[in-house]
Amino acid sequence: MMRNNDNPITLDLFADETTTTPGQVERIGEQSLVLRGFALPWLDRLLPALEAVLQAAPFRQMVTPGGFTMSVALSSCGALGWTTDRSGYRYTAHDPQTGRPWPDMPAVFRELAQAAARQAQFEHFEPDSCLINRYVPGARMSLHQDKNERQLTAPIVSMSLGLPAMFQFGGFERSDKSQRIPLFHGDIVVWGGVDRLRYHGVLPLKAGEHPRLGAQRINLTFRTAG
Ligand code: MD3
Ligand code: FE
């Protein structure tokens, strides 16, 4: 269903309810908002900066403490990067693959994350970590909580690029019912306060070809980790 005449985006992949309009804001939790298309006007600056980060710290698939290789490939920029291996999940100042510090967080990344946080009434967001997740068709992220960050009061800002994905937003226990929220190219989600410890995940990515990013979804997640 179309809400106005302003550049609607429809994907038959998700049937009816999936027309979104840039500028639309949806509340999905007490302190969580989806800002549809918020990143679109920034992408001519953002995508070249993303390419430069990925040159310095390429995507790689990591192993979980349980010994499984993640289907999602990761990289990071900023002072701290999230990593996992057989010994656990943690934030590190260095890329374990190169031994070098993670690439600096590009100014355009920080500015966009802060602009989005402001829209959700988080005025002083200072992200020190940007996790970059790449999903190819079939890749998924099973329901989990993020609790390795020291400041659980800071919000998390996530930006979706490329192919659409179905995000699952659950409750405070794994078995709680979850909502399904489709996320499209250019959408930003801001999660804060009471919603910070909710279980969440991403259903297996469906095959497709995005005009700008090809057969993948890239998600940037900004956090205050240290
Ligand atoms: C909601 N990434 O990297 S966006 C993750 O699309 C992760 O790649 C997903 O879950 C993705 O940990 C989801 C970001 C996100 C991050 C933390 C959250 C959503 C969250 C914490 C609480 C609630
Ligand atoms: Fe997460």
From TrEMBL:
A GO term from the CC aspect: cytoplasm
Keyword Phosphoprotein listed: no
Location of the Fe2OG dioxygenase domain: 126-226
One Gene Ontology MF term: oxidative RNA demethylase activity
Keyword set, alphabetical order: Dioxygenase, Iron, Metal-binding, Oxidoreductase
PANTHER family linked to this entry: ALKYLATED DNA REPAIR PROTEIN ALKB-RELATED, NUCLEIC ACID DIOXYGENASE ALKBH1
Residue runs in coiled coils: none
NCBIfam families recorded: PRK15401.1 (NF011930)
Natural source organism: Pseudomonas brassicacearum
Signal peptide interval: none
Any one GO biological process: oxidative RNA demethylation
SUPFAM superfamilies: Clavaminate synthase-like
Record keyword Oxidoreductase present: yes
Highest taxon of the lineage: Bacteria
Protein name: Alkylated DNA repair protein (DNA oxidative demethylase)
Pfam families in alphabetical order: 2OG-FeII_Oxy_2 (PF13532)
